[in-house]
Design brief:
The chain contains four helices and twelve strands, in the order ααααββββββββββββ. It is of the alpha+beta class. The chain folds into two domains: about 15-60; about 110-224, Immunoglobulins (Immunoglobulin-like), CATH 2.60.40. The strands form three sheets. Strands 2-1-4-10-8 form a five-stranded mixed beta sheet, with no helix packed on it. A five-stranded mixed beta sheet has the order 3-12-11-5-9, with no helix packed on it.
Amino acid sequence: MNGGIEDANFNDLPWASVFDPAANARALSSIQAEGFRAASELVDRLVRITRSGLNGTDWPTISAAPLTNEQRADIFGATDVAPLVRSWWSIVGQMLLGSDAPNPPAPEGPTVDLERAQATGRLDMVVSAPGVATAEVWLHNRGTTDFSDVTLHCSDLLAHDGNVISSEDMRADPPVVLMPPRSSRGITVEVRVAHDVHPGTYRGNLLASGGPGLWLPVTIAVEA
């Protein structure tokens, strides 16, 4: 019973062309050509309408004096089409650059670079006696040397009238810092100001173990 179906030619089926790649390619090419033809006719019609008007007659000629630059100027001050486009792109570019501009990095404050053996910045503190003045110092080891234990030491803080804040009133937290290669660490510096310390500006130095160039100026303004 199925012999007739098996002996039948598969290409005789009406929908067999759906599975024929060559037939599909020819049909696609025909559709594309027809689309291009229709688009060309539409463009030709628009051109004819622009030249001769909707009813096949020429557009009426309007005689008028040419516009001045002030009359042709756009809202941005440009005249004609090309300057208008340039003005528009300039504004868009400024908006895009303004939105993508990175924020400037915030100042890091006083730092000690162990690899380069140098320090930058200064410690400026303000405190009312009695009180505790605090500041933060960052230690950086960007190299491959292990600096092991690093400690901070502060000198006595002197005022112009001879008054002194003793170095014993200074405390670093933590007091000892491990600085292996490729590491950074922040240290809090505290200076306790007793009630009998006279108001004024006291100055000294903060030194880090590891090299003679690792020091920072310290200023404490004691207010009444």
